[in-house]
Amino acid sequence: MGDVAAKIKIMPESVDTDLLGLKEKLKTVIPAGAQLHGDIVEEPIAFGLKALILTLLVNDEEGGTEAAEEAFAKVPGVENIQMLELYRI
Fold first, then answer.
1. Residue 1: pLDDT band with limits 50, 70, 90
2. Whole-model pTM?
3. Which residues, at least 6 apart from 77, have a Cβ–Cβ distance to it below 8 Å?
4. Residue range 49-80, pLDDT digits in tens
5. I need a surface site. Which of 13, 25, 48, 51 has the fewest CB within 10 A?
6. How many distinct structural domains can be found in the chain?
7. Which CATH number fits the domain that encloses residue 82?
8. Which helix (H) or strand (E) holds 68?
9. How many angstroms separate the CA atoms of 55 and 4, rounded?
10. CA 34 to CA 30: how far, in whole Å?
């Protein structure tokens, strides 16, 4: 089996959400077997709201990103999570 890169968009609950703190919390919940590739980037959405975009490297097995998605969803301040891209590397 190989590895895949998963590009994930994380929406904060509001424009008042502390994005720096949210980034740090997200880094701490990345499950074993996955690793952050590059920085967590802020993407402007509208009216001051910014999404966080991150890329994870995970093993190419069934359910490879599910553990990370579930962990991110439990972080306080996260509204929702969307998989943007998933590709084999």
1. low
2. 0.90
3. 12, 13, 17, 18, 21, 22, 25
4. 999 999 999 987 766 788 899 999 999 999 99
5. 48
6. 1
7. 3.30.70.60
8. helix 66-73
9. 10
10. 7
